[in-house]
Amino acid sequence: MNKFLNITALSGIIMAVPALAQEEEVVDKTWESSVDLGFSLSKGNTDNMLLRLGAQTAKKDGADAYFANASYKYGEEDSKANEDEILAKATWKHVYEGKNFYGIRFDARSDAFADIDYRFSLYATYGYYWIDTETTIFSTELGLGVTTEDKGQGNSTYISGLFDQSFEHKFNENAKLYQNFSYSPRIDNFDDYRLVFELGVETKVTETIALKVSFEDRYESVPAAGKKKNDLNFITGLAYKF
């Protein structure tokens, strides 16, 4: 866990370097941030509890865009833990020549019940904004990088690829839809790959509080020994924006 936290912190510093290098005349330097909480509890014939804490921040600064999020999920069934997962992601994108962009992306995951002690991936990426307006953003990107992980059988480090597709649409000032899909294969063995799909809706309740509902599907073609390939999550919660 110490290794996970140390590398995650280091990646945050790496992702911040382009931001520190920006010149003072850039006009828009506003970060849009939020923290969210999802919680469910049931008592009776079965006792279930699920807690999810998350935080994210984003900024569009001229030709550069920054995004970072992290979440922790913990669950119990009949007083026995059945979920314990940490996720983190950070990206930097720089637009050049119209809607083309290049960037850096970092992903991290630790999941006690999927036997993923840690997984870190760092990619160099190239992509294109097919739509980039005030209300709608749709982009795709390709990446190549390095992944290091331990799925219960010691460390493994390998070259990995990335295909990512992102979509976001604001219906108005109070509601938006977002969707993301990514495919990450192991370059020396394309039978070993990961798929992540996320779909969510966010609606403002007040100026600073929003209701979030999301669906997540994480698929591992080669999971840890004895573990299932698919993890599905349906999450509801509140977010505080600042």
SS elements, strand count: 12
The CATH topology is Porin
The first-level CATH class name: Mainly Beta
Strand content: over 45%
> Ends: how far apart?
30 Å
- What is the arithmetic mean of pLDDT? 86
Percent helix range: under 10%
**Number of separate helices:** 1
The Rg value, from CA coordinates, equals: 19 Å
By CATH's scheme, which homologous superfamily applies?
monomeric porin ompg
One letter per element, helices H and strands E, the order comes to HEEEEEEEEEEEE
Low-confidence segments: 2-11, 13-27
Structural class estimated from helices and strands: mainly beta
Which architecture would the CATH scheme give at its second level?
Answer: Beta Barrel
How are the strands ordered across the major sheet? 1-2-3-4-5-6-7-8-9-10-11-12
Report the sheet with the most strands, covering strand number, pairing sense and barrel closure.
12 strands, antiparallel, barrel
